[in-house]
UniProtKB/TrEMBL annotation:
The keyword Oxidoreductase applies. It is an enzyme of class 1 (oxidoreductase). It comes from Streptomyces cinereoruber. This is Peptide methionine sulfoxide reductase MsrA. GO terms for molecular function: peptide-methionine (S)-S-oxide reductase activity.
Amino acid sequence: MFLSRTPVLPTPEQALPGRAEPEFSVPARHTVLGNPLVGPYPEGLEVADFALGCFWGAERKFWQTEGVWTTLVGYQGGFTRNPSYEEVCSGLTGHTEVVRVVFDPSEVSYETLLKLFWESHDPTQGFRQGNDVGTQYRSALYTHSPAQAAAAEASRAAYQKVLTGSGHGEITTHVLPAADRPFYPAEAYHQQYLDKNPAGYCGIGGTGVSCPIGVAKAEG
């Protein structure tokens, strides 16, 4: 099944078991923003999780956004505990590559981050982004509050309207609560990869269709 040309998510029974503790440590601070990578985070900040293909280029999109306090990349939405990059890429963990964004809502709204999310990738491609094929490249939003969930669902509906009007297909992005889907930080060399390797691979590319921020107006 996992060697077929069409990626398939494993069931919990098929997934690798993983391990109780990670096999690697995460750097203390963000190489660009200088703030801690792993929480607890200062009071007043919010956390949001975005999956939009290869996390190297995706993370850079977010750390370049004003109001973002820190970013880190990792794995989420699967079954394997504390997976490695190689295990995730095998398709046997069920995880997707995710950017965790810690932001100050007084400086940047979750809706603005959603706009960046939608416009930075093609959310209609299922288990792929461009030439990157695999379940780990699927599009997803893992929400941390009812307000985030409502905003994510509304933005998906609004963006579907403009995508449909531009001749694109159905959005395949999952909107799911983060509470039941642990985030596992990725290995140190993945964190801020494109800061350490400015000429490194970046597979991020959108549809060219603008996402309306004013969700209520867009739905009218």
